[in-house]
Amino acid sequence: MADKARALKLAGTIKKIVARALQTEIKDPRLEFVTITDVRVTGDLQQASVFYTVLGDDAAREDAAKGLAKAKGRLRSLVGSGLGIRLTPTLEFHLDAVPETAASLDRALHEAHVRDEELRRLRETADYAGEADPYRRPAEDADQDEDES
Fold first, then answer.
1. Would the CA dihedral through 134, 138, 140, 146 be positive or negative?
2. What pTM, to 2 d.p., does this model score?
3. Whether 109 contacts 56, CB under 8 Å
4. Is 132 left (phi over 0), alpha (psi -120 to 50) or beta?
């Protein structure tokens, strides 16, 4: 089992090699708007999970997945020649959900901000349901005791 520092260094190198290969070596039009966001390598350095994003709609994402699946062998051979280690890790491509997650979080934060502003406006015009100060004070208790006697 390799140490984490070596796995991280290897992941960074794989990320650079795959990104450069998609930019210069692989001439598939389906992969024009693919961006490699992260690479994670298993502890035994046998598998590399490559995370990517695609600019476009769902059809562009599907086309990019097909293009990456087709180019997987060529990319692995480029990674193997670029790494110079005995065993080349297998590549698995995963669509990175970070942009969609970030967009949904932005929408949720915007909705919360709108609701906070609405509550602030309601609070400014709100009246008390009962008295302004519903708590009894010690002085009032003493005055009532004297009145009752």
1. positive
2. 0.66
3. no
4. alpha
In order of 33, 76, 82, the CA distances from 4 in angstroms are 31, 22, 20
How far is 62 from 95, CA to CA, in rounded Å?
10
93 CB-contact burial (10 Å; exposed 0-12 / middle 13-18 / buried 19+)? buried
Q: In what order do the strands lie in the sheet with 34-41?
A: 34-41, 47-54, 90-95
Specify the 3-state DSSP secondary structure of 134.
coil
pLDDT tens for each residue of 71-96: 999 999 999 999 888 888 999 999 88
pLDDT in tens, 1-59: 567 888 899 999 999 999 999 999 888 888 888 989 999 998 888 999 999 988 888 89
d(CA 53, CA 147): 79
Torsion sign, CA atoms 8, 11, 16, 19: negative
Give per-residue burial for 45-74: e unless 16+ CB within 10 Å, then b. Answer: beebbbbbbbeeeeeebebbbebbeebeee
